[in-house]
Amino acid sequence: MGCFECCIKCLGGVPYASLVATILCFSGVALFCGCGHVALTGTLTILENHFSKVTSDHAMLTDVIQLMQYVIYGIASFFFLYGIILLAEGFYTTSAVKELHSEFKTTICGRCISGMFVFLTYILGIAWLGVFGFSAVPVFLFYNMWSTCTAMRSPVANLTNVDTICVDVRQYGIIPWNASPGKACGSTLGDICNTSEFYLSYHLYIIACAGAGATVIALLIYMMATTYNFAVLKFKSREDCCTKF
C-alpha cells in the first residue's frame, strides 16, 4: 500500500460530523461565555450609574450577576472537556475506524458508555435551548432601549417634548420598584445610549446569543453522531453474537 492510499484510508477514519460539532461547540461556548461575562459586567455598571444609585437596591442583582459569571466559568470548563470526550468517542466508534481494525469487538461496557453519551447529549441539548432563549432576553431589553433612543433622535419623529419618553427598567423586574431613580427620560436616556458600556454590552449580548445558538446546533450534530455511533455498536454486537454460532 502506497503512502497516498494509506493517507486516504486514515482520513476515512476521521469522524467528520463529530469534528465539525466540536469546532462549532468550542466556538459557540467561547462566544457565549466570553461575551456574556463582559456584557454582564457592563450591564451592572449601567444600572449602578443610571438606574439604581443606592447599592442596597441592587445588592441581590449584583450577587446574581456574580453567580452567573462563576457559572460561565464552569460551563466553559465542562464543555471543553465534554467536547474532547465526544470527539474521542467519535473516533473510536465510527464505522470507518472499525473497518481499519478488523478485529474490533464491542463490549457491554462500551455500549453502555455510548448510550450514556447519547442520553447526556440530549439532556444538554434541551438545556441549551433554554440557555439560548434566556440569552435572547437581554438582547430584547437592550433593543427596546436602543430603539427608543433612535426614535428620539429621528428627525421625522417631530417630538415636542422628549422628556416624556422614558425607559423604566423596574418594570422588567431587574431592580425593585423602590430603586431610585429606576428610569431614564429624555436627554438622560440619550446619554445612556451614547455610553460605551451600553454600546458594548448590547452588541456583546447579540454575539453571546449567537454563540448559544451555535452551541445548540453543535449539540444537535452531536446528537445525530452519538445516536448513529450507538446504533452501529448495537448492530456490531448482534453481528458478533451471530458469528459465534
TrEMBL record:
PROSITE patterns registered for this protein in UniProt: MYELIN_PLP_1 (PS00575), MYELIN_PLP_2 (PS01004)
Key words of the record: Membrane, Transmembrane, Transmembrane helix
Transmembrane segments: 19-47, 67-92, 113-143, 204-228
Protein name: Neuronal membrane glycoprotein M6-b-like isoform X1
PANTHER family xref list: MYELIN PROTEOLIPID, NEURONAL MEMBRANE GLYCOPROTEIN M6-B
InterPro entries the record matches: Myelin_PLP (IPR001614), Myelin_PLP_CS (IPR018237)
Membrane topology summary: Multi-pass membrane protein
GO cellular component, one term: plasma membrane
Endpoints of the signal sequence: none
Annotated organism of origin: Salvelinus namaycush (Lake trout)
Family statement: Belongs to the myelin proteolipid protein family.
GO BP field: axon development; central nervous system myelination
GO molecular function, one term: structural constituent of myelin sheath
Subcellular location: Membrane
Predominant location category: membrane
